[in-house]
Structures are given as C-alpha cells and as structure tokens.
Amino acid sequence: MLFKYLTAKNEDIPPGTATIYFGFSSILWFIIGTGLGSFNAAKLAFPDFVTGTELFAFGHMRQVHVLAVILGWISMAFAMTMMYMTPALGNTRLWSEKLGVWTAFLWNVGLSLGLFLLWLGFTSGREYSDLIWPIDLVVVFGVLLPLGINVWMTIAQRKTQGIYITNWFFGACIFMVIIVFLVGNSAELFNLTGLTEGYLTFWFAHNVLGLWITPVAAAIAYYTIPKLSGNPLYSHRIGHLHFWAIIAFYSTPASHHLLSAPLPEWLKSFASVEGVLILIPAVAFVANILLTIKGRWSMFVENIETKFSITGVLLAIPLNMQGGFQQTRAINWYVHGTGWIVAHAHLALLGMSSFLEIAAVYFGLQQMLKRKLYSLALANFHYWFVIIGFCIYWISMTIAGLIQGGGKIYEVPYIDVVIAEHPYMIARWIGGTMVFTGNVVWLYNMYMTAREGTVVPKGRYAHELAYER
Amino acid sequence: MFGLSMSITLFFPSFDFISAESTWVGLDKALSNGRTMGWSFEDPLVRGDGKPLTVILDKDPKTGETIDPPVRAYVYKPGTPLASPINHPNNLGPTVKSLGFSKGKIDQASKEAGAVFTISYADVNGEEWAYPELASVTRGWTVEATLATAGDENTRYVGKGKQVYTTEQCWWCHTLLPEHTQDWQVFGWPPYQGDMNGEMPTAFGSDRKAPDLLHVASRNSSREWMMMHFFNPRLVQPNSIMPRFDYLWGKVDVNGNPIDYAKWRKEYEAYRKGEVAYPPEVPEYARDSEIRALIDWILTSLK
User: Fold this and answer.
1) In the predicted model, what is the mean pLDDT of residues A126-132?
2) Contact B38 A126 (CB under 8 A)
3) Given A121, A122, A194, which is nearest B91 (Cβ)?
4) Residue numbers in B near A267 (CB within 8 A)
C-alpha cells in the first residue's frame, strides 16, 4: 500500500503518489462527512432516532460533520489538486513527493484524532474553530505549513516564465489560511475573551471560507476547464482581477455574521459594504470560466469532469447573488440564523466548491493512476445523485428558512415554526442521504478505476479515450 | 493589500473592544464562569473542574448580619484559576478597572490562596457603576465561611453548568443573541457592549433551530419544568425536536439509587402509545450531577 512510501527515498517515490493518497483520503472523508450529515439530518427530523447516549447526541455529532467536510473532504481535495496541478503548471515535478505523502498521512491521523476528541466533547465551544488549540497547532504546523512549503517550493522551481493564475491562488491561499488559523485561534491560546472572542470566532469562520474554500475551488476551475475543453483561459487579466479583488474584499466582511451583536457600528457597516463588493471577484470568475468553455458546451453533456465543473461554476451564480445581498442589514434581519443560511452554506460547500473539487479529483486520479475511469454509468449515477440530493436539500432548507424568518418577524410561537418546518427536515434528510449514496458509489468507481481502468497511453489524456465497456 | 484588510478588521476594532466598560451582567458572567470554558489545563476532561462556585448570600459570612436583598458571591477554592478580567484587568474597561483596583482590591487576589468575589456599586460623576470586589480582602469572607453560610441549597454550579452547555454544544440550535428586530420583543433585550467582557466562549450561536436562551430564565424559572424538559423534551412539548439529555443525570439519583433508564423508556413508550395515562416520573437528580449544574447555570445566568 501507500504506507511503504513513508519510509522510501524521495527519488524512489513515483510522481503522483501524494496525489493518489490525498485523492482517496478526500473521497473517504467526503463519505464520512456526508454520512454524518445524513445522520444528523435524521435526528432533526426524528429527534428520538438513536437517543439516550451522549456520543450520538446531536450536539456531539453536528460539528464533526462540518469539520470532516471542511478539513477532511474539501481541504484534502485541495491538497490533492495542488499536488498535481502546481507541478503541471510549472512544467516540473513536485518539490518533494515524500513530504506530500507525509502531509497526507499526518493530516489523516491529526484530523481523525481531532474529530474523535470533538466527538467526545473536547471542544473550544467556538463555531468552526471547535477543535481544541493543541489540534489547531497540529493543523497549522503538521498539515498546512508542510503543504505550503511543498507548493511554494514547486512554484519557485518552475520551468515556465510566468505563474499561472491557479498557482497564484494556491500559493497565496495557503499563506492566508495559515494566518487565519493562527489569528482565529489566538483567542484560545491567549485567553482573549468577550466581544474579542466572539468577533474572532466569526472572523475565522468567514475568512476560512473566503480565503480558502471558495478561492481555491475557483483556482481549480481555472485549471480544469481550459485543460478539459482545450480552450485557453478567456482572460488571464480578469483572473488577476478576481485574485486581487478576493484579497481586498473577501478578507474584511467578517462582522456581517454578527450584525446583532454589540460590535462597533462602523465595523458592521464597513463589513456590509465590503460584502457586496464580493460580487466583483464572483462575477469576474464566473464570466471568465463561462467565456472559456464557449464553443465546447457539448462537453457539459458528454464529459463527466466538465459536467461537474460547469455545474459548480453555474451554482456560483446563485451563491454569490445570495451571499452579496443577504448580508446587508436590509435582508439579513429576515434570514439571519434561519435555515436559509444553512441552505446558503451548503450551496457554497456542497454546491459550488464540492462540484469543482469532484471534477478535479476525477481528472487528477485518472491522470496520476494513468487509467481511464472504470465506469461512466456509475459516474453519471454519482453526478445525478449528488445534484438531485443537493437540490432537494437546498430548496427545502431555503423554504424552511423563509418560514422561520417569517415566524421570527411576526412573533409566531417558536414551536409552531418547528412544526411547520418538519416536512422540510424530512426532505433535507432524504437529500443528504442521496448525496451520501452517490459518494459511496464514487469511491467504488475510483477503486475499480485504480484496479481495472483502461490504461492510458503516455502523452494522452484519459478523457480523450473511448470507454471500452 | 492583505495587510491593509487585516489592519481594518483586526487592529482598528481592538480600540473599540478595549474601551468596552463591563456591565453588571458582564462581571457576573466573568466571575461565575472562571477563566475559560471548553478544554483547558484546569479542566482536561471537560467535566467542569477548576470552575468557581456562585453562592447566594442572605447573611454576611463573617459578621452574620442579614443581607437584604441577597447578593451573589463567587467562590474560588484554592487552586481554581481566576476569572479572565482578574488576570487581565484591561478586560474590565478603564473605569471599572480603576474602581476594581481602588475600591475592590482585585489586584490582591491569588489563585493559590483562593478568593471570594462579589459585585458592588460605586457612584462616578452621578452614575452608578458596578465593579468587582475581592470580598475575601475587603470584607473578610473566607472560602470556607462563605460556602458554609450559603449551604448547598444556595450554591449554584454556574461555571460547571456553562461548561456542560459548551461541551454538549447546545449552541448549535440555541442562540444567546436576540436580534435587532422584532425578535427581541419575544426573546428579550439584545446584549450590551459590556455584557460579555471576560466571557469565553461567548457562544452567540448562528444557526437557530430553537428559541433564543439569553433571557430564558425570565420567561420560565421552574426547575421542575427544566428537569422534565431535559430528561425528555416531549414530556412537556410534544412537538419539540430537542434531543433527550437524560444521560446528564448520570448513574444514580439524589438518594444514590441507580437510575433504570431501560425501565423508564419502556414505561414512556407505553405512555406515548396511549396505553397508560401518565408518563413515568423523572428521577430526582444527584447533587453533583451535570444536569444540576446545567439548570443552575440557566436559572442563575440567563435572566
């Protein structure tokens, strides 16, 4: 297995090993994460489903779902894409394959430990930064920093003249997420309390999404779409507009999550204005990608990676339209704290981001395994189960959120809101279970690809070959 | 550009945060919660160890004189880490800090010797200000005398209760932040700027699947209702989706008899199906159980 490469010499490790290790890990975490999500959703629909034990209480399971998805699935899929895209874009090899394998190993061990402790109730009690601070330090110095060193060094030893936009994002986002982790968790390290803690909690929650999850997902699309379609990127300059607008506007609106908290009013107003300006990088990104795929829209139907990728880009449109405006005071007072926000968060992470990463993991694993996907039928099954499951989830939670918002504004007794939401809670559970099912099929498909996929000849891309079965 | 946005979102607001003056609510939270919540060196097993006790005093522990109305005192046994604003007095805000030093003598508090705090009021330029007072120095209230005077019935395990709230992660569904809309007309006044000085974590919550709890004890102060609701929320609210927290009772009830959960569930199932008219009795919790601490915290802090 891959464990033997932990002790092998760097030059003896075949290129792509770290990619494969990260790729399969991320799919496994995706299954764990969505499985926990489905389990939690069942508890919200039927509160006496698995009851009476501390370990399977909702409060103990809920955040394990969130962090398994963010730090397990999404971030590992990011690492996986960095392991093969960064060298490919620099026309070079990964700086250290061995460091990559070790990062993947430490990541799995550290995250398993952190989530196990969180499951038992060892928490900091801070949303998104729930992991206790010793685990946070493991994440920064055992996972993110080695990943960063590998990516930065690979970019530095590139054999191309410029740095492609994807690598701009990769290098900068790892740097920024390390800063975000250290500053966000400084409240625990230095016992910063009160409003400072509350603010830093959401400063972290906002920035880990804005400076890590969405921009890296976009960076992946900047690679996959031109690569798959054969069209060059429409505009590198618009890509740079996207990059710098993310740095300028996405790093500041943290306090729009706390419009009701007694934070300074200037800070909240500033955050709301900056929050609308997020539309600049958002529009730049979507326009750039959709203009790149121009002329090759048939691939949206024929090619599974393009199908996932473009779906993710299209989902970025409602995502950013919601995100830009729901955080203004005019709209936030209605939807804040309701299922609408839950729907929006899943649109970002399961919709836009995950679809882009799924495409990249499909593409990268086939490239690095040098085998063509085992079954297109199963991949399509995966696609439709994830997209239909996601849509059921998204729509039902949006409706539930609007009901809840109405209940909040018109002072409806809370229990009546709970009763009204019940059908949508069942729908969300069905949707989440469909996503989970699709991912189990995906793991099987990728496992069979590694074992029995048609071998891809040197110099060819997997998606150029016809299926043999 | 990253540096500029970091300045605007981190450095500039810090001036606002540092100038926030602690209110009575903020002092009460900070002194009753102790240094921090969640996992920490003083509480490595997240069982609520290393937290202060809150007592309601109607008699002066030293002189025995009646105190009317009763006051709260915060008892730090020797070795219990002191509250964040005692360690870092800047968290109190400039005015409260100077009152705490000049009148409250809080700079004399020591973790090793133990401490008893209370909250007093002083007049500053015609305004009433609450400030922390180290009663073990200013009034001679020792840890033992204060606990003995209050007795178990007037002792509230507030710090441990907040720890239960934190580790059971109640804040995934309940918020502690009424919003600036009609919302507060039901759930009560939103917090003031100084209401959370020294609190860690604030646990505002963001995803509300259940009512806001910041002032829940003002709406419902029945310990019996809380007991039934935690043991099985469907006992008092048939449509509730809250999980059962019966496991917080632990193994034994108040008399030391083992709690037979299987039997209780069987009887409850019969009640739920309509086979019997009444649900089984909820066991009386043990004095040192987690549920006692949690209800103590709710009824004492969330007013």
Assistant:
1) 94
2) yes
3) A194
4) 9, 12-13, 16
The DSSP symbol for A351 reads I
pLDDT band at A1 (very low <50, low <70, confident <90, very high): low
DSSP string over A101-144 = HHHHHHHHHHHHHHHHHHHHT---S-SS--S-HHHHHHIIIIII
| A1 in a structural domain | no
Q: How far apart are CA B190 and CA B139, in angstroms?
A: 34
Which domain range does residue A53 map to? 10-455
Residue A468: inside a domain, yes or no?
A: no
Residue B192 touches chain A, beta carbons under 8 Å: yes
Q: Is the pLDDT of residue B110 over 90?
A: yes
Residue type, B238: P
Asked if B169 and A62 come within 8 Å (Cβ–Cβ), the reply is yes
Q: What is the pLDDT of residue A469?
A: 59
Which of A196, A242, A336, A409 has the most B C-beta neighbours within 10 Å, making it the best mutation to test the interface with B?
Answer: A196
Inspect the interface and report whether the beta carbons of B183 and A408 lie closer than 8 Å: yes
Beta-carbon separation of A338 and B210 below 8 A = no
- Residue intervals of chain B classified under CATH 1.10.760.10 are 170-301
d(CA A170, CA A152): 9
Interface membership of B265 toward A (CB under 8 Å): yes
- A462 assigned to some structural domain: no
Report CB contact under 8 Å: A419, B239. yes
Q: CA-based Rg of chain A, rounded to a whole angstrom? A: 22
Band of the pLDDT at A406, cuts 50, 70, 90?
very high
A60 and B192 within 8 Å at the Cβ level: the answer is: no
Sign of CA dihedral A278, A262, B211, B189: negative
Query: Whole-angstrom Cα distance, residue A160 to residue A154?
Result: 11
How far apart CA A368 and CA A17 sit, in angstroms, is 8
Q: Give the nearest partner residue to B13 out of A48, A179, A264, using CB atoms.
A: A264
| Contacting residues of A for B6, CB less than 8 Å apart | 179, 183, 251
pLDDT digits (tens, 9 = 90+) for A23-48: 999 999 999 999 999 999 999 999 99
**Of the candidates B84, B166, B242, which has its C-beta nearest A193's C-beta?**
B84
* A chain contacts of residue B182, beta-carbon cutoff 8 Å: 408-411
Indicate the SS3 state at residue B129: strand
Q: Where are the alpha helices (DSSP H) in B58-157?
A: 84-87, 94-102, 135-138, 143-150
Q: How far apart are CA B165 and CA B302, in angstroms?
A: 12
Structure tokens at A217: 């997902």
Residue of higher predicted confidence among B179 and B27: B27
Q: Does the structural domain B170-301 have CATH classification 3.90.1150.10?
A: no
Of the candidates A302, A156, A276, A151, which has an alpha carbon nearest to the alpha carbon of residue A219? A151
Contact: B241, A248; criterion CB under 8 Å: no
| CB atoms near residue B8 (< 10 Å) | 16
What is each CA distance from A172 to A97, A149, A463, in whole angstroms? 21, 12, 30
CATH code, domain carrying A324: 1.20.210.10
Over residues A271-301, the pLDDT tens digits come to 999 999 999 999 999 999 999 999 999 999 9
Q: Is residue A447 part of a domain?
A: yes
Domain count, chain A: 1
The interface pTM score, or ipTM, of the predicted complex is 0.94
Which of A143, A256, A132 minimizes the C-alpha distance to A205?
A256
pLDDT in tens, B18-47: 899 999 999 999 999 999 999 999 999 999
